[in-house]
Design brief:
mainly alpha; about 70% helix; about 425 residues; globular; about 0% strand
Amino acid sequence: MSNIMNKLQNGLDKLLGPFATFMGSNKYIKALTSGFLTTMPVTLGTAAIAILINLPIGPWTKLIQNIGLYQTGNDFISLTLSLIGIYLVGAIAYHYTKAENKNPIVGSVITLAVYIALMPLQYDKAGTASLLTSNMGSNGIFVGIICGLLVPTVYCSLMKKNLKLKLPSSVPPMVTESLEPTFVAMIIFTVVFFIKWILSLTSFNDAYQLITTIISKPIMNIGATPLALILVYSFENLCWFFGIHPATLQNCYTPVLAAVGVANTQAYLAGKPLPYLTFSVLMTAVYIGGNGNTLGICAASFFAKSEKYKAMRKLIIPANIFNINEPIIFGFPLMLNPIYFIPMVVTTAISGGVAWILASFLPINFNPTISLPWVTPGFISSFMCGGFWLFLIWLISFLLCFIIYLPFFMLDDARTYAEEQKNALE
């Protein structure tokens, strides 16, 4: 068994080692990751408002509707959660430009201007122009990512070529920093102008439709499916077993998760069916206590006979309830422990598959506007976002993980208990 594990570990090291190194050092990946993290205060900061206006209590709902609080709350969410693309593009550009040691504010502002300039204008009968908010939300996330990485790359490259507006030393530094990129900005906006014109002559009409058709839709059609979600998290579990932190892989999947969340939010606020309801429901079942659904083995530890695991559960359970499972991965340990290879890898597929079936017939009213911190316990977040039925799915998934882990833990605990008894007699 150990030889098999060694071969698997060596194989994964060869396959994922260079990839993990690349992901950790690549400046584009770093900017993308930092950009998404920067937008978290928007999603988490509005969580209280989303919860306030969506509490499933009849008298409360009637009250906030009568005083106009419900409509104001939905409008507020529409202008925050549904416009995540516009926050994201500025944040990505800021972090990339900063990493290149150029003025991050200027890089961010220019990129944001390009992002908006590429948007198609809509005209009503009176000739009044307007922008579609969908282009700043679900339709604009992938455009935002591309602009957020490409525009500051060009900006920093041109600035390094010293294409700066030369000003006398008597000019205040703040003014100099603002005016130095004038020539670079003129070049960037001129190029973007002609790109916008050329696209208007094609069947795509604009950059948003082009990127949606060629990039966004294919990625979402593949990556935003329940099967893809299960496979991604199962693979992350496999890597986590061999000590490769799943955050490295999660960074690649974050744009899909963000697009799903925004698309569901926009549909919910418009009173339409959620396009990714099943996908969102499965998120409840594939991450119970962290990657590997490790809250299941925490529950199994209550059946421990050995002193080691009786003491260990006091350390691992409090952290795991809040989805922090590094203590159990490295302390139990689960990592590179052959006994737990099977349950750690397969729990996501089983719990996700059962949740997939349950989601097909249970009347789940999922509210995507409620975005809670990732450390929120699953039994709380599931109830807050989906009421009783989503909580039931979480509970069933948790029990499945517990049942899967239990026999493997009992085997491990029995061996540990026998060793303790033997040591006590010596």
